[in-house]
Write a structure and sequence with these properties.
This protein is of the alpha/beta class. It contains 15 helices and nine strands. The longest helix has 15 residues. The relative contact order is 0.06.
Length: 367
């Protein structure tokens, strides 16, 4: 959580990003300062309620005691889960999963579904439990190999597990396991960072959880911190691999266009021959690419079969004129074309009529 907060804190888009932290109330450092009796009245005019006053607290940000975590100041919102216990860990995992599922059912104003990916960096047993919860809900997991602790243990087990079959209640089931040599090596890795938890049975718990994670071959991606490829490429690739079916192809394409990764679209969408985009879908994606200024996608879609003549309609020109940013070259071209048409409108229309065709005037679609 702190790593995400640090990244957001350095971003130039901080004011536009909603960053939600989900934590354990019993493990929150100086949580008593958040109680109602410590709140103060801070006058702050909200956009929709100029006279409103929002209750605030003076939260002291200092080094937390061992076993506790302080609220990260770069998060815009915090959900603190309380089940009445003070020392129990992981009580927020189920709530976080439900909140994530709720958010994933929303769409952006561009009609792009909100994908979810869990990125695991270092971590402990609680991170392993969170990874299991994420995968059981059908979501995607990216693990950073080389970041240490639980992440490296998970990567080792994931890469060295083997598939075996065994009989359970008269039925043959497939599962993942480790050879004895790999199991002993994994125990060494666990002892390296978690030896003090041996009495709590962490070795068996962690190996069992990692073997379950290893069964999700399509929704888990291992990314080495020494990999020259950018992390966002692997995140997007993992999202593409985890979903299937023609009904999701348009959403996948819009997501790839939004992120600006034509290579991902080429390798994970167009390479699959079982689904063909219709003319309407290609035109819709072409329009979306132009508005987002993704020239690589415009070329890709044309190579795939999009026809510019079919695309140039009054409806598409209207949307381009109204939605292209004024700083883009496409907008300036449309403006220049409109000015020329205004000067020579009569002659242009006369020429069009003489050819018995109907021309689309940019001045007609600029409202």
């Amino acid at each position: 959580m702190k790593l995400v907060g640090d990244v957001i804190g350095r971003s130039i888009f901080t004011s536009k990003i909603c960053t939600i932290g989900v934590g354990n109330w019993g493990k929150t450092w100086r949580r008593e300062m958040l109680l109602t009796k410590h709140r103060i009245k801070y006058e702050r005019e909200a956009d929709d309620h100029p006279q409103s006053r929002e209750p605030m607290v003076n939260y002291t940000l200092d080094a937390p005691a061992k076993g506790y975590a302080a609220l990260d100041p770069n998060h815009t919102h915090h959900f603190l889960v309380d089940d009445g216990t003070a020392e129990k860990e992981g009580i927020e995992i189920d709530f976080r999963g439900e909140l994530e599922s709720l958010i994933c059912n929303m769409f952006t104003k561009d009609g792009v579904s909100l994908p979810m990916v869990t990125i695991m960096i270092e971590g402990g047993m609680q991170s392993i439990d969170q990874a299991v919860s994420t995968l059981r809900k059908g979501k995607t997991l990216v693990v950073l190999k080389g970041s240490g602790r639980a992440s490296d243990i998970l990567c080792y087990g994931f890469e060295h597990s083997i598939e075996v079959e065994r009989e359970v209640d008269g039925e043959i089931v497939t599962e993942r396991t480790l050879t004895e040599a790999c199991r002993q090596e994994m125990i060494k890795l666990i002892d390296k960072d978690f030896a003090k938890y041996r009495a709590q049975g962490i070795v068996d718990k962690m190996i069992t959880a990692v073997m379950e994670i290893s069964t999700y071959r399509k929704t888990v991606t291992v990314f080495s911190i020494y990999n020259p490829e950018p992390l966002d490429f692997y995140i997007l690739s993992s999202l593409m691999q985890s979903s299937a079916g023609g009904a999701t192809r348009m959403r996948q394409m819009r997501l790839a266009i939004t992120w600006g990764h034509a290579r991902v679209a080429r390798e994970f969408i167009f390479a699959r021959k079982e689904y063909k985009f219709s003319v309407e879908e290609l035109n819709s994606l072409l329009l979306f690419s132009i508005i987002k200024q993704r020239t690589e996608f415009v070329k890709l879609l044309i190579d795939y079969g999009a026809n510019v003549r079919d695309f140039v309609t009054q409806a598409h020109l209207t949307r381009l004129y109204n939605e292209l940013r004024s700083s883009t070259g496409g907008y300036r071209l449309l403006q220049e074309k409109r000015r020329k048409e205004k000067v020579d409108r009569g002659r242009f229309r006369m020429s069009v009529r003489s050819k018995s065709t109907r021309g689309v005037m940019l001045s007609d679609v600029a409202q």
